[in-house]
Amino acid sequence: MNDKCINGLSSYRDVAAQAGHQSPDVAPNDADKLTGKVFGKRVPESTKPGAQAKLEMKRALKIIAALIAIVVVAFWAAKGANTAWTKNQISETKIDPVTELPYPVIKDKFVPGLDFLGGGLTVATLLAFAARFIRIQRTNSKQINSK
Amino acid sequence: MVAGSIVLSASAAPQLFDFKDPKGVNNAVFKLDAPLEAINGSANGISGTVTFDAAKPGDTKGKIIIATESLQVPNSMMKEHMQGGRWLDVATHKEITFEAKEFKNVKTAGDKTTASVHGTLIIKGVAKEITAPITLTYLKGKLSQRVPKMEGDLLVIRSTFIIKRSDFAINPGAPADKVSDEIELTLSIAGAAPQK
Fold first, then answer.
1. What percent of chain B clears pLDDT 90, i.e. is strictly above it?
2. Residue B183 belongs to domain with CATH number
3. Do A103 and B154 touch (CB under 8 A)?
4. Which one of A124, B2, B73, B182 is CB 3.0 to 4.6 Å from B41, fit for a cystine?
5. What residues in A contact B154, CB-CB < 8 Å?
6. Domain, as residue range, for B175
7. Which residue, among B55, B25, B27, B51, has the nearest Cα to B159 in the 3D structure?
8. Taking a C-beta distance cutoff of 8 angstroms, is the pair A15, A7 a contact?
9. Which residues 126-145 of chain B have a CB within 8 Å of chain A?
């Protein structure tokens, strides 16, 4: 709430003022006029190129963070949800038909582990966290009143 | 009669089995099962010779060598660490060796002999006397099935035993909850004795 009754009519999308069959010096009242002043100041600020770019970057970072998290979890799960370290090789045990000895056959294969999952989710979290720090400057009513 | 006795004495003589395996089947598997992490790997750089007499399996002697560079784990970074100076230091210690000196509790049934083998295990330059259970399987005349056009015999050795990482100065400071102090070693190897 504000002590000047700015946006006293509680308009959510636009700006609203109230006036009946009264002369302009009576209605809209001072609070509605101040609401218009604040709104008028805010529109160019929030639509200037820099603010728009920051807003888009913030949104992009959040989307990228969410995509990274989804892709990392899906890839890890699709590759077998390995709960050990990431593997670059896998081993298959075969049996020699003559000696009946078991022996490992090593093959190159990438199997992501918990370190891959943790690393991916950390990157996603850092991006989402960075998005929170992109601030779009806004002027408050006290600054308007003081001008 | 003379020829028969010559053949008999030849077959009863100790044979030298070579464990260098061109097929790459011979292997040693190691397992470390710590509360937080299990590490499994293998090595296939096996060589060495064993003298075996089918009539006297208790007299078996020999030396098995594992090339430390052939030790493998599934993670490349883990392999680098394992081969590094604090762990196995493969640049300096290129071999793990076991020299069999004495067989005890020898029991033979058919072509299979079980025993306890006593010998010296050297890892990272540290020598320890150990005793391990062992199974020897003598496969007479089976070499040709493995190596075409080469007549001779095979000797299969299987052994599983546990050693302590700290006994051989393999990064003794590493936390035991992540890297187990106990290492289970399983040796599965076959040696060939071609007919001369």
1. 82
2. 2.40.128.110
3. no
4. B73
5. 98-99
6. 15-194
7. B27
8. yes
9. 137, 139, 142, 145
Domain assignment present for residue B4? The answer is: no
| B73 located within any domain | yes
- pLDDT tens profile A22-59: 888 888 888 898 998 988 888 877 777 777 788 888 89
Residues in A whose CB is inside 8 Å of some CB of B read 84-91, 96, 98-104, 106, 111, 113
CA distances (Å), origin B59, targets A42, B53, B106, B131, B149:
97, 7, 10, 16, 30
Most distant CA atoms of chain A, gap in Å: 109
Q: Classify residue B8: in a domain, yes or no.
A: no
Convert B111-120 to b/e letters by CB count within 10 Å (16 or more is b). eebbbebebe
DSSP A43-110: HHHHHSHHHHHHHHHHHHHHHHHHHHHHHHHHHHHHTT---SS-EEEEEEEEE-TTT--EEEEEEEEE
**Any domain includes B2:** no
Please check the confidence at residue B158 and state whether its pLDDT lies above 90.
Answer: yes
Q: How far apart are CA B179 and CA A54, in angstroms?
A: 48
Which residue is it, tokens 């807003």? A55
Domain count, chain B: 1
For chain A, domain boundaries: 1-47, 50-139
